[in-house]
Amino acid sequence: MRNILYITLMALILSSCGQSKKITSNEKPIIEPCESMIFTNDQFKDIESDYYSLDSLFIENNCLNIWVSYSGGCGDSEFNLLYSNKVMKSMPPKTNLMLQFKDNDGCRALVQQKLYYDLSFFDDYAQNGGINLRLVGLDSSVLYKK
User: Mean pLDDT, to the nearest integer, of 74-84?
Assistant: First the structure.
C-alpha cells in the first residue's frame, strides 16, 4: 500500500513539472492589475492586523509587489495597504506603509498570495530622486524611483 501511494505521488509530481506554459512571440504576458492603497489618518500602532509573513517585496510597472504567506485556506481574508501623507525629510524621503491583514479563517493550510498596489500617489517623489517605502512592523523597505 505504501509503495502504491509513493508511486502515485511521484507520478503526480512528475506530470505537473512539465506543464509550464511558454509564451509565443504574439502572446503578451499577463500583467496583474494594481489595487489602490487606502489613506488613513490613524496611527499605524492603533490599527489591528492578523499575522502573515512577508516573502518578497519589489516594484515592477509602478506597482508595489508584496508576496505574503499566512495560515488559512477555507475562509475569508483581506489585505489592505494603508498610507498616510506623512513623509520623513531625509535623502531620499521615507514614508511608512502598513499592510493590514484581516483573516476570518480557522484553517491552517499555508496560503501564499501575491498582492499588487498602485504607487501613483508617490509619482512626484519617484520622479525627483525617489522615495523609500517602508512596511511597518516588517523592517522591509524598497526605493521607488523613476
Answer: 92
